[in-house]
Amino acid sequence: MAVSVDEAVSTRPARDRGSPARRFGGRGRSALEVTLLTVLAAVMLFPVLWMIETSIKENRDVYAIPAKFFDFKVTMDHYKDVFVASGSGRSTLSAAFLNSVVVAGASTALATVLGVPAAWAYSRFAMKAKKDQLFFILSTRFMPPVVVVIPIFLMYRQVGLIDSKLGLILIYAAFNVPFTIWMMKGFVDEVPAEYEDAAMLDGYTRLQAFWRYTLPLLLPGIAATAVFALIFSWNEFVFAIFLTSSDSVRTAPPAIAGLIGGTTVDWGLVAAASVVFALPVLVFAYLVRKHLVAGVTLGAVRR
Amino acid sequence: MAGIEVTALHKRYPDGTVAVDHVDLSIRDGELFVMLGPSGCGKTTTLRAVAGLERQTTGDIRIGDTLVNDLPPAERDIAMVFQFYALYPHLRTRDNLAFPLRAEGLPKAEVRARVDEAARLMRLGPLLDRRPRRLSGGEQQRVALARALVRRPRAFLMDEPLTNLDAELRADMRTEIKHLQGELGTTMVYVTHDQVEAMSLGHRIAILNKGRVEQIGTPLEVYDRPASLFCAAFIGSPPMNLIEVEVADGKLRGQGGLVLTPPPGLPRDRRLVAGVRPEALEVTEPRAERSVPARVVSAEWLGDEIIYVVDHGGRRDVRVRMPPTVRFAADAPVGLRHTGGTPAVYDVNTEELVA
Ligand SMILES: Nc1ncnc2c1ncn2[C@@H]1O[C@H](COP(=O)(O)OP(=O)(O)OP(=O)(O)O)[C@@H](O)[C@H]1O
Ligand SMILES: [Mg+2]
């Protein structure tokens, strides 16, 4: 059943007190809930908190024993180091971030441009062995990336895609297309085909009907799907470290990992780089959170 | 405006389902033609083939003088109204109506004039600035109809457009559609599985069953002389009583002794069934003149009439329609009398009307 966004969101906070599960326990129960959730949140968020703290501590304080929780001097030097090279000009890390933006953005765009029409076709048209085709598409995601990275490395070397942003964009798109097709097919299924039928009778071609009628209705779904694809590409590490080597091509995850190793580790820099790395995804997910809810409840079109 | 000619239509879906086996239809210019049949008989598929939304496996479709087999929907110049209204959710009523006209690239003033006219016809004035979400089901359906009107197509196709409405509204909309079609004089093909709708709307009705046409005729013809046992059992509520009869002494005799006047030209040596409408029978006092013995099984009071189910001639499901003033108790012994004219007679084996 299709659930509209407002419904999905607004019914949530309204607790129905009369439900059997809440009849006994009452206050004690909710206190227990709050306690457990607090503990869970603390455990989950502590590493994040520590990362943020480390990123604004001076190196002395980072290594201090016992650890300093509150009384340390706040510094922004690490953040400066993330973006500006020690001499002058841009740092390698900032170049890596830029690479990440380009690679994640382009691969997501490519996966969306390929996956959405494919999902539409799979949803709308009768075709031979449709289920098998869809299963095959999904099956390409069954394997963990590590399994295929060696053959892909060899192939990429042959065709000259090794150590290139294009290579990464292509491989990420290849991983995101199946995901996009599967997720978007669900959304397209939810949009009644009659919209397109009506549009075609009104004088539009099938593609125009898709473009003008169905696509706008799919935007929440596309946003939700794209965020997931973007997060995958943004966070991806295995392919990035195997397939790239030069600083001008490397994305952020291997670049940050590269900071660790050697004789001394500049933990402040690592933490600052990690914060900068995590931020865009958080901000982006926050901006499209309404669409994400719609995505989870599948379909914002009322029949 | 144009008539629609469907010849030997056959549609097999890729999964192997034969939705339409063999359909011939000849719909006249300006006619309100109803396709009636049970669920899954291929009504929608036939209509979609006419619209061009589905490509028939074999067979020809002509709209006016044009063979449209290979024309895309856009070039067939017809409008369709769906059970699900397919109003564009992000557009106000006004823009929903204008959408098909903009597709044609009509000048703004013309678009405005046409939208206003359609809005006037369907009385949409106060709704023009609302989005579909804020319209009731009936209002949405009126917008959908208006949307079909604005284009002034050569024909309207309607696929159960009133199914989602409640009974009262449905009756109103039915009248409205019939009136509108009469006024515009545009050919309309109307699909429904509701026989009351079919009877009250159609100039002619085609009864479909399992992808085949069982009968085409005016509502009266279809009601009076169903062309097959299927039609006989489908039309009317309750439908005809199908009583096995034998020809003897120039009369049709049922097992319980019911005697009917035979139609002329009855074939011999065949097992026959007579279709007798519930209103062609009468429940009487026991042993009344020309009556045969029967027993009341149950009675349904419908307010303006009573449907008696009586036990007669070894069957416990003979239905009789009586005025509400005549009352018999359940289980009471009664008489059963035939008051109608000559019944329709069917061959049991071919299931077709023989006379
Ligand atoms: N896209 C399709 N693929 C395969 N089979 C289909 C498809 N559409 C319809 N059918 C089948 O074809 C047959 C006829 O379907 P159709 O929709 O024409 O029936 P209908 O007369 O409109 O029924 P209803 O009154 O329920 O709308 C049904 O058995 C249906 O299951
Ligand atoms: Mg149908």
TrEMBL record, chain A:
What's the main place this protein lives?
Answer: membrane
Q: Which SUPFAM superfamilies match?
A: MetI-like
Membrane topology (UniProt): Multi-pass membrane protein
Q: Where is this region: Disordered?
A: 1-24
Would I find Signal among this entry's keywords?
A: no
User: What residue ranges are annotated as transmembrane?
Assistant: 31-52, 96-122, 134-156, 168-188, 209-234, 267-288
GO annotations of cellular component type: plasma membrane
Per UniProt, the keywords (alphabetical) are: Cell membrane, Membrane, Transmembrane, Transmembrane helix, Transport
Q: Where in the cell is it found?
A: Cell membrane
Task: Report the coiled-coil segments.
Answer: none
GO biological process, any: transmembrane transport
List, alphabetically, the PROSITE patterns matched: ABC_TM1
* InterPro entries membership: BP-dep_ABC_trans_perm, MetI-like, MetI-like_sf
Return the Gene3D superfamilies for the record.
MetI-like
Q: Where is the ABC transmembrane type-1 domain?
A: 97-288
Q: Does the keyword Transmembrane apply?
A: yes
CDD domains hit by this protein = TM_PBP2
Similarity remark: Belongs to the binding-protein-dependent transport system permease family.
Q: Which PANTHER family match?
A: ABC TRANSPORTER PERMEASE PROTEIN, MALTOSE TRANSPORT SYSTEM PERMEASE-RELATED
**Name of the protein described by the UniProt record:** Carbohydrate ABC transporter membrane protein 2 (CUT1 family)
Q: Which organism is it from?
A: Nonomuraea fuscirosea
TrEMBL record, chain B:
Gene3D superfamilies in the record: 2.40.50.100, Nucleic acid-binding proteins, P-loop containing nucleotide triphosphate hydrolases
Q: Which SUPFAM superfamilies match?
A: MOP-like, P-loop containing nucleoside triphosphate hydrolases
Supply one GO molecular-function term.
ABC-type transporter activity
Got a GO cellular component term for this one? Answer: ATP-binding cassette (ABC) transporter complex, substrate-binding subunit-containing
Q: Which UniProt keywords apply?
A: ATP-binding, Cell membrane, Membrane, Nucleotide-binding, Sugar transport, Translocase, Transport
Please list the GO biological process terms of this entry: carbohydrate transport
Question: In the UniProt record, does the keyword Translocase occur?
Answer: yes
Domain named ABC transporter: residues: 4-235
Q: Which spans of this chain does the record mark as coiled coil? A: none
Superkingdom of the organism of origin? Bacteria
* PROSITE patterns cross-referenced by the UniProt entry: ABC_TRANSPORTER_1, ABC_TRANSPORTER_2
Q: Which InterPro entries match?
A: AAA+_ATPase (IPR003593), ABC_transporter-like_ATP-bd (IPR003439), ABC_transporter-like_CS (IPR017871), ABC_transpr_MalK-like (IPR015855), ABC_transpr_MalK/UgpC-like (IPR047641), Mo/tungstate-bd_C_term_dom (IPR008995), NA-bd_OB-fold (IPR012340), P-loop_NTPase (IPR027417)
Protein name, per record:
sn-glycerol 3-phosphate transport system ATP-binding protein/multiple sugar transport system ATP-binding protein
Q: Which organism is it from?
A: Nonomuraea fuscirosea
